[in-house]
Amino acid sequence: MSSMPFTLRVATSIADIPAQVWNACAADEAGHVDPFLDHAFFLSLEESRSAVRETGWLGHHLILERGGEIAGVMPCYLKSHSRGEYVFDGGWAEAYERAGGRYYPKLQVSVPFTPATGRRLLVRPGAEADLARTALVQGAAQVTLQSGVSSLHVTFCREDEWELMAAAGYLQRTDTQFHFENEAYGTFDDFLAALSSRKRKVIRRERREALEGRGITIRWLTGAELTEAVWERFYEFYMDTGSRKWGRPYLTRAFYSLIGERMADRILLVMAEREGRYVAGAINFIGREVLYGRHWGAVEEHPFLHFEVCYYQAIDYAILHGLKRVEAGAQGEHKLARGYRPATTRSAHFIADRGLRRAVDDYLARERSYVAEAVEELGAMTPFRRGIPDEQD
Q1: Residue 35, CB-side half-sphere exposure with 13 Å CA sphere
Q2: pTM for this entry
Q3: What is the DSSP letter of 104?
Q4: Would residue 169 be called left, alpha or beta, if left means φ above 0 and alpha means ψ between -120 and 50 degrees?
């Protein structure tokens, strides 16, 4: 094993890091790169002006080198706000600034606007991978201190990374999402058979009422079917729903054209068509084992159409294609009744100021306890049968 030390430098643009090198670090041991870790995804966010300095996402990507060669990378941004992160620290910022501190700018290790768990310590597989991960964790903390920013936040990281960062002094945080787990179902009806009779009937009714009598047809679009005309329509949905939900949607129109060019085979649009025009749709990204549901929008309101387009169609697709899980984005306890189970998400936080660190540490200890209890309680509320004979319907 080489005794040559690791060095760390910062790139302000993802374009400064060769795609082949980035993806070699992002790939798992089987050589697969998750869609949200692909160089093309980050580059599209940057080139579309969605995640850039002007929107409060200045690239501050950490590059780990040994002997002049890149051994690892960490997608990182210098943030002037806390929007688009889905892990909420606004209360920390307010308290720190009331006490005379300056919370922003801060460093954010994440995939912008994407609440999906994945690797954040991207290192080349091999004998020195563990050393490189440790060097990235320690180096990121040093960059935080040397930069004079308040904090570093690593959001939606994997559990093994979360524990590694805790050992280096990062604070641990948890939250809850809802995921569909594919228990080797052959069909959607096989999935329904695992639910209580009452819940089966509710889901069948929702699916029926979402489409029947309304002239709505569901279409799955991917690959070459993702034309500019389709993206133009989907962006209308995104702008309509995003403007009401967030006030200012995060993604630009150009982002969709760019990912359509670069990642079309890894994207699934579920589109609802009525009278020859699309009226609603949801975008999903296709991983090796997971279907990631991101956002949806609609220009017409129809009962249960949201559930059909976002949740039930995603389950249909996952079962048909043998995917192990559907991750349907942040929050939403209404997903529980539709066959999605509670799952714990994790983030790690390096706080430079000792006073703020003590306060946040105390808060997070109580929050983790609450989240653990909530996950257990929600798990008992799923619609699945519990070994009790169930009536047929």
Answers
A1: 23
A2: 0.95
A3: -
A4: left
Query: Scanning the structure block, which residue is given the tokens 């994440």?
Result: 110
Round to whole Å and give the CA distance between 77 and 67. Answer: 25
Tokens of 55: 């929107």
Asked if residues 62 and 73 have their Cβ atoms less than 8 Å apart, the reply is yes
pLDDT tens series, the chain, 393 aa: 455 699 999 999 999 999 999 999 999 988 999 999 999 999 999 999 999 999 999 999 999 999 999 999 999 999 999 999 999 999 999 999 999 999 999 999 999 999 999 999 999 988 799 999 999 999 999 999 999 999 999 999 999 999 999 999 999 999 999 999 999 999 999 999 999 999 999 999 999 999 988 899 999 999 999 999 999 999 999 998 766 665 678 999 999 999 999 999 999 999 999 999 999 999 999 999 999 999 999 999 999 999 999 999 999 999 999 999 999 988 788 999 999 999 999 999 999 999 999 999 999 999 999 999 999 999 999 999 875 555 555
Strand order in the sheet with 69-74: 7-11, 61-66, 69-74, 122-123
